[in-house]
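> tool_call: predict_assembly(chains=two)
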Amino acid sequence: MVEFSTDRRTLIRGLGVLGVGSLLSSPASAQPQPPETTPNTRATYRAVVDSVVPRTPELESELGPEHVPGGLSVGLDEYLVTFINNLFSFGVPEAGDAGNMRLAEAVALVLDVGAAKLIAAGENDEPPSVDRVVELLEPTDLVELDRLTDDPESVLERSLFAALSREDRLRAIAGLDSIEFDTAEFPGPLTEVDAALIGQLVVGFTEVVYYSEWQGYEDITAPPSERAFAPDVDSWEQTEFPGIIDGAAALRGYWGAPNSSLGEGRVWDTAVTGGGPPKKLFADPGNFEDSDDYDTSDYEEPFSTDGTPAADGPLGDAVSSLNGDVTDNDVADGDLTDAEDVTDGGVTDPVDTAVDGVLGGLLGVGN
Amino acid sequence: MVKDSYDAVIVGAGGDGPVAAWKLGAAGLDVLVLEAGPFYGNEQWPNPSEDPGGELSDSVEDLSGELLDEQFTTRELEMAQKLLFGPADHERGLWFRKFPGSGAALQASGVGGTTLIYTGNHPRAYPAAIDEQDHWPDSFSYDDLLPYYRELEDVLGVSPAPVTAKEEMFFRGAEAAGYDLIDDANVTETGYRPQPNAIASPDEKLRHDNDYEGNFRHPDDPDAVDPVEGHTLAAAEIAGNPHPRGAPYEEKAKKTSAIGFVPRALDTGNVSIRPNAFVTDVLTDDSIGGDPEATGVEFRDTWNGSTETVAADTVVLAAGAIETPRLWLNSSLPRNEWVGKGMTLHFGDNVMGFFEESVLEDAVGKPTIDPQEGQNIAARFDYPGVGMLQTTGSGPGIAAILGFGASASGFTFSNDLSDAPWDTQGRLAGAELKRLLARYRQALPILVVTDDRPHKHNGITVTPGAEDEHGPIPQINYVPSEGDVQRRDELAEIATDILREAGADHVHRSDSPPTALHIHSTMAMGKVVDTGCEAYDVDRLFVADHSALANGLGGPNPTNTGQALAARTADKIVERYF
């Protein structure tokens, strides 16, 4: 197994890439220089795209050749980094608008931690392999790695999420939902609060971007009035989506019945016959009856109306992601932010404090 | 120029604020509306996402359908990025809200607010949710809303939605499952019906077997070929629907509050709208003894960061069910233990059915359902006490994230469903995702909307230290109750039954994480505001948005009720102070 470390030094180094430290120490006017995306981060997002919307040669015989390409063949991984780095704006009361929160590296780190957890629990189906990381990278990434470090191999080994098989990566993401992490491993509140959000980010957003019109833009970050778009989108071929339309001749009529106020005018078609009165499609909508004589006296409550929080399902997700645990008191007093068992990983030095402070300030508890 | 003082300042030009503005302006009050987002389709801001543009708009002459056509491309990703809750500047991301767990808040900014992305659905509350559930004050009843419902539905032209293939499949399934057709606007029974939508009906020319060969443009458009009025049956509501192209501003088919009420408000000659203005403080005077009195607000320009104050005889909070309590909590206002608490958000889910081409051929005479056609949401199922279902057509990107991208129960491959009525549950990725999305045009998605109940532990808090340029950010806390989960499960089972009866061969349930789409009851009547929606603890401070609703209305889409209550609140303001 590849050695993988999630010690604070590693995390802080990763977070240093966020540029948040410099942002904190340079008030008002200074815009931080956007840091470069590292080869590790690129590998992680390529791994995400490779798992969520992979190239699928196996679908060629089943569905046709247009179903083979996936997100990597259209550069979705690069856009995902841009998208996540520009998702939330970042302003501070004293300094005003300070651009957007650069989150791609932090999200990538959380994915690596999720991978480490999966492996530590022995829940991966296949062993991680640095070869997968190398395969995901472009030759230029490897050249850049060589330039950045004396020890490229150990840097590559840090991309543990990318080193997993496609399905094991999804397992690692699913593991983030249930948050059974020792929060001491994380740099403050970021992942305590939002690890479950990571799955929605990297799965949900990868899907919505891939299946949307995204591929048709020359540059989606250009000013809207100058944004060139051509409806040439692989995923639209895969879904048979006909493209952006101004209208459709699709009117089948208005649903109604002869004895109902719904549906009026000519009958275009009879849609349902059977038990009740036949349901027909009319040329005009008709209207809803609107009398003052509505009667609610038969109303009954089919299910419990007390406020007892659900014991599992979404409760487990929402609550555990807050602080690991929420006491009855926290629920009862209506404030889920004041649970006292927020662990912080032992902040001591000024760099740690700055990072914790900024992430805490942005993302939640801890201050 | 924003003047020094007004009779009324309204915080937020979302779904409800423009209704209050129109009513107050019509009563002769001098009104300023402050909106955090941009003003689309207005000649004062020809490039509202790129340049600061003008300062305020006070004339209906400023409104431009042509600009709206340019700005609202209906491309789903671009429009989501443009409209979701954030500053006007396209280079800046969304304003951050913290939602513990994996949920998300889906609100829009800009004049029109979340109605810019809403699907035009305008049902009334279930009468029993107001008269029989005990969340509302005894002195308020469904009867109090009825005259306002009737007036506003008439203004917006609310009418039964048209049927395309997706609605016909749903109605057939509902009939086969044994449910009755409801034809009453005041719903007290379980059954199905076409959506009452605030969308102008499509032209009869667009009949499916009519060989229409025009370009779906409005008669006012010089380039129109075989012009049409009303909805064009492109399912584009979620993507901002400005159809028909070439129509004057007021004649766009989908009646957002920006289309339906803003022109009326400006037409009074007494209303000014100031976009790009984020209100950060409610100012009060407590020198007179007793409760403090609202005297104005402070706001911040989102382009240049400058702040201004404006005085007002009355202040109306209409910033939405997240930002209204946030603003209260960030202002120096009296503590009220219910501010922000008791939130309902219709705890939603998605259930999607897939159909064989031959089944569709038999039912609707073609091999596709075509979720990209018709109105996005045009058919519904009502179940007072439990909630509702509605069919949800959309583009493939939104279909993907709604159906497969977000779940509270992991991935499909790890879920044991031997006892479940659906075939798959959870997130989907990889080849399996691509297989199901290859059937996008044979899919019928159904949105589950639960009558979740107000619980004090659910709501909006702010945490000092977690701040953006407008002060401490809102944190959305939501944990459903056992009953809420049971109601949602019941609805998901009914949706599955309807889809199976319609002939679906595969049913997928998302088990969505709590997502805030319809958000209400965070400044509830009877808890924070009185039956006239004036704050118990601050005189001359009113709430005119969904936060004043005392519960989730039983599940129906809240826009109609939020607007009706805002109109009523405007009448109360005039009665009490002018």
